User: Fold this.
Amino acid sequence: MKLALIGVGLIGGSFALAVRAVGKFDYVVAFDSAPGALQRAAALGVIDEASPSAAHAAIDASLVMIATPVGSTQAVLRDIAPNLTSSAIVTDVGSAKGSVIEGARSELGAAFSRFVPGHPIAGREHSGVQFADAALFRDKIFVSVPSVQTDAGALLTMETLWRDIGCRIERMTSEEHDSIFAAVSHLPHLLAFALVDHVAAQPDAARKFAMSGAGFRDFTRIAASNPRMWSDICVANRIALGGELRAQRKLLEELQYAVDSGDADELHRVFTRAAAARSQVLG
Amino acid sequence: MKLALIGVGLIGGSFALAVRAVGKFDYVVAFDSAPGALQRAAALGVIDEASPSAAHAAIDASLVMIATPVGSTQAVLRDIAPNLTSSAIVTDVGSAKGSVIEGARSELGAAFSRFVPGHPIAGREHSGVQFADAALFRDKIFVSVPSVQTDAGALLTMETLWRDIGCRIERMTSEEHDSIFAAVSHLPHLLAFALVDHVAAQPDAARKFAMSGAGFRDFTRIAASNPRMWSDICVANRIALGGELRAQRKLLEELQYAVDSGDADELHRVFTRAAAARSQVLG
Assistant:
């Protein structure tokens, strides 16, 4: 069984290692537009063959996994569409789903029913194939986001595969997915990037970073994430993220008023609700 | 040597354990306004004696450590002032320094020169004496924030004590302190509380929290911090924090525009600067 892997980063590389480890694929052909990525992946034994294009990699593949930044997904689908076999499954791991699914509908024609959209919740702030790990998906959630047209056999194949490499499957609509991850992933990443950029722009930034404690390190860890991956996600999910950001800015405006006026009671009310939720729900 | 400890939480309790472990104090008398805190501290062996008031605890103490939320510091100073011996040193661990120092100047009279303001960078999201740890301050930064009136002998005594229990000393003015920690501590806490409150207020909050990954957990860890402690800090440092929050909101307004208009390049520019700063400075 041949896997075509488009995008050989942390997630794509880990997927290739994991599916090979459970014996589901014995040959991995890959394409990546980043210079050197394919050579590194081959040297690490993550892939068997470097392909000159996504279109070329897709030939004869039983599964095409798209693990690029989401902004490239539609172009990849356009490239591979003419070369897909009639039984090939196409899948992705993008953190935004609605726009990816619309792109697939536009590009794949009849093959759209064999496009199985998904999102494993297994990111790290490190990116690149050098961090690829066959165990990355173990005990993680895989969000399965079928459309009403998704072929039931293809869906079963993919959900079984993700389960085999360690995931628990959560199925939801793309609207639900995009709303949830705008709130618990995309907005936090945007806020973390914004905070670090804000501090880094100050004249005494080095001293400020040097004085920061464990809380700052934890809070800003996700700001070390891949910038292209995250700018793509923010744009791909801009409707839901824009709404979340607008609501968050409204709350910050209220907190600004409380800070400026020294209203400890109002701050205490908000902080108490937040601390209770954080402790109760996430331990 | 007798230590009077006002406020027996994570920091106060850890300080008592640490200074006793290095043999600097052999008797700890404590006051805390929270019901049960003194009993718990006595049961854990953190204190020798529970006192009925801060004023009473201060009698004959060679050092009075104030480790309450900063909003209570001035009232504690007022209570203890009449009972201080002529050689007693008074110190604190508040995360905001300018307003605390002004409060001490108002309340302590001639004893103000023996008020040694400080801030160990050793917080955790857990609070309470049950988490007290004699090793909490090991390899941490202690920010020493003397005023121009601070007695050199008292300052030397306190900096030596913090060094003895494991800290590296960083000395700075209260203005510098409050500016730095507004940026790298107070604003991140406020943003984390605000994000969790925002998500928790949504109708499907439980499902959203359940779907969150490691990034969200790291980002929101500080939102489990003590709400009273943090509302007090935000008010005590409201000038510097208000400025930081205003600047951060301006950046978020720009990012809102970029998200809404699908400007991936602008988002990429900001995220790239942030990721580079985060990786270079904090590893």
Observations:
- Residues 2-172 of chain B form a domain with the Rossmann fold fold (CATH 3.40.50.720).
- Chain B touches chain A through 96 residues (CB under 8 Å).
- The CA atoms of residues 120 and 142 of chain B lie 4 Å apart.
